[in-house]
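Private note to self, pasted from the team thread so I don't lose it. Backbone tokens:
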């Protein structure tokens, strides 16, 4: 009997090296499935109440380039004990939710227990059979054992009102959580319907809003009262490295919680005039320190959306690699190595290829830019509108407290779809590579990221929170309101899996730089650092006389506006009009070279705009 047991695996008594069916050994029941972007022959085990995936399968998927960090993971400490047929407790490293597709067209988000083995045998248990279209037919009369899940009973998450979601779109869906939620405000919601995103949600009066993605070609209709998942009190766990024993020999250079918080506070304090953070801001950082990235190694990818590159029926475009100076070859090789280790790029065998351009930064390092001009000519454009910078700046009237938040390599936080990766390929002297994340330089990258940010921030955007692609500003008239909005923004970014770059964030300040302007309680001003480049630019003797004339034409707009005001066509009672009058009168006379250079630092928006007053 012991020799038979040695060949068994898991609950299903999976026997290896079967030479043939006999009275003692039956045939294996297998089904072809697709998971983690790979096909497998999974063992169908009707004697197992759980589905099992070996850690080796996950590790190989990671080696192929699959981003395992996007999977929803249940930590080992939260698992209930599982025993095999011999009543021995089984060892699992946690559980993971994986999308499984079958050849028959059935699919579902299946929870798998992770076994600490390097095998490649996936086991499908009874917890997944019905969702994958597998039916067990028993001829003789018997009754199946019914077990009511007391843990999830009464914890349904239901839709509050009927909602229509068009194809290839995302929607915020109001839902209600049934059952006793207790005093805690945060709950983990696990979906039972495809398209619903799992995650930690803030519950208020048993209600919250969840993200639902319709990636299909047909409309998705959610009915009122429809169950879309259940809530639990588990803590969200998304650190894949903690569950991967195959990577345990790697050196962990991560800082401890307190060390990381201290470094985060130090980075943000450097952006303040007093080199010190407000105490209430420190409390926020302690609660939401994971929202910030303190180094490039902490770059993560979110899983709400994937970037696609739609080129229609266009044939692959292959362009020759441009030569790179020998002196820059070592820097290029080092940069490519860093991008590979950071999972930003990967080696490619694509038919597509675009040249690179190396740009030197201020610190002497180089930036890798890909010339996607030919690709952009073939891409189907995304018409999603970007905010008007001028209208945005005119909405800052009367604000006293400002915070600017900058995303950590914003585009790189959005993964590329599998069929889009090969189209991002670029040729270098070191070989052919392709992006795993959204690259800079694509014509569709800005609208895709803007749509994502508008979806994440949602109803916060308006009079006090503004977002232009990856730049976020929070501006208020009171400190308490400002802290409240910051916490709400941090919550939504964390929930979406997005991170901010600590070095570029400025919190609770009276004066900040935003979108090329300086903003304070008095209004919007030109940024002296940017204007000084033009003011200090040397002018040749031949062009010295022409410069004042060119500067004069730059203020004709203000002169026209002044005429409209005097004619009564426009009416605006604010300091802004007085500023225009002064500039308009100045433009009617000759301007000296020195005066012209001074006027470059003056903008029609230097005064605080009265955006609530009538313009006509």
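Design output:
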């Amino acid at each position: 009997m012991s020799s038979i047991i040695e060949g068994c695996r898991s609950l299903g008594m999976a026997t290896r090296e079967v030479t043939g069916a006999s009275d003692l050994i039956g045939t294996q029941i297998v089904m072809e499935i697709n998971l983690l972007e790979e096909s497998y022959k999974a063992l169908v085990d009707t004697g197992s109440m759980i589905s099992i995936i070996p850690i080796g399968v996950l590790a190989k998927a990671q080696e192929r380039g699959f981003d395992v960090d996007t999977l929803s993971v249940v930590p080992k400490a939260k698992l209930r004990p599982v025993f095999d047929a011999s009543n021995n407790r089984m060892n699992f490293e946690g559980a993971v939710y994986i999308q499984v597709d079958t050849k028959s067209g059935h699919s579902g988000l299946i929870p798998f227990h992770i076994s600490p083995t390097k095998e490649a045998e996936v086991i499908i248990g009874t917890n997944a059979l019905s969702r994958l279209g597998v039916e067990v037919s028993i001829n003789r009369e018997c009754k199946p054992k019914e077990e009511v899940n007391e843990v999830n009973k009464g914890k349904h998450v239901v839709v509050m009102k009927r909602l229509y979601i068009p194809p290839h779109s995302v929607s915020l869906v109001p839902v209600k959580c049934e059952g006793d939620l207790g005093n805690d405000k945060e709950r983990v919601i696990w979906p039972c319907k495809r398209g619903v995103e799992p995650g930690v949600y803030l519950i208020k009066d048993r209600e919250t809003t969840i993200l639902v993605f319709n990636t299909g070609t047909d409309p998705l209709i959610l009915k009122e009262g429809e169950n879309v998942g259940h809530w639990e009190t588990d803590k969200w766990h998304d650190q894949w490295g903690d569950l991967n024993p195959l990577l345990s020999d790697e050196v962990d250079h991560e800082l401890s919680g307190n060390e990381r918080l201290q470094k985060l506070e130090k980075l943000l304090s450097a952006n303040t005039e007093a080199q010190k953070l407000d105490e209430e801001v420190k409390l926020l950082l302690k609660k939401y320190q994971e929202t910030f990235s303190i180094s490039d190694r902490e770059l993560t990818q979110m899983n709400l959306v994937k970037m696609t590159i739609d080129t229609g029926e266009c044939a692959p475009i292959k362009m020759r690699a441009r030569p790179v100076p020998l002196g820059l070859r070592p820097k290029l090789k080092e940069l490519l190595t860093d991008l590979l280790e950071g999972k930003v790029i990967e080696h490619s065998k694509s038919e597509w290829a675009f040249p690179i351009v190396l740009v030197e930064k201020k610190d002497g390092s180089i930036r890798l830019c890909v010339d996607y001009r030919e690709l952009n000519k073939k891409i189907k454009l995304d018409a999603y509108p970007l905010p008007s910078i001028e209208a945005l700046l005119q909405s800052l009237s009367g604000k006293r407290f400002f915070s600017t938040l900058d995303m950590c390599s914003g585009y790189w936080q959005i993964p590329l779809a599998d069929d889009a990766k090969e189209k991002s390929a670029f040729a270098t002297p070191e070989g052919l590579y392709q992006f795993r994340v959204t690259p800079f330089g694509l014509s569709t990258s800005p609208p895709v990221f803007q749509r994502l940010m508008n979806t994440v921030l949602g109803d916060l955007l308006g009079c006090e929170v503004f977002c232009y692609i990856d730049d976020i500003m929070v501006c208020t008239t009171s400190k308490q309101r400002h802290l409240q909005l910051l916490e709400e923004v941090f919550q939504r970014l964390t929930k979406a899996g997005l991170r901010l770059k600590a070095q570029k964030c400025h919190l609770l300040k009276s004066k900040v730089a935003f979108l090329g302007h300086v903003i304070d309680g008095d209004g919007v001003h030109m940024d002296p650092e940017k204007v000084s480049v033009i003011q200090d630019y040397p002018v040749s003797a031949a062009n010295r006389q022409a410069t004042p004339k060119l500067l004069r034409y730059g203020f004709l707009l203000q002169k026209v506006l002044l005429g409209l005001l005097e004619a009564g066509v426009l009416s605006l009672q604010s300091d802004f009009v007085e500023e225009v009058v002064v500039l308009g009168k100045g433009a009617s006379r000759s301007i000296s070279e020195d005066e012209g250079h001074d006027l470059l630092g003056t903008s029609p928006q230097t005064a605080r705009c009265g955006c609530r007053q009538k313009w006509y």
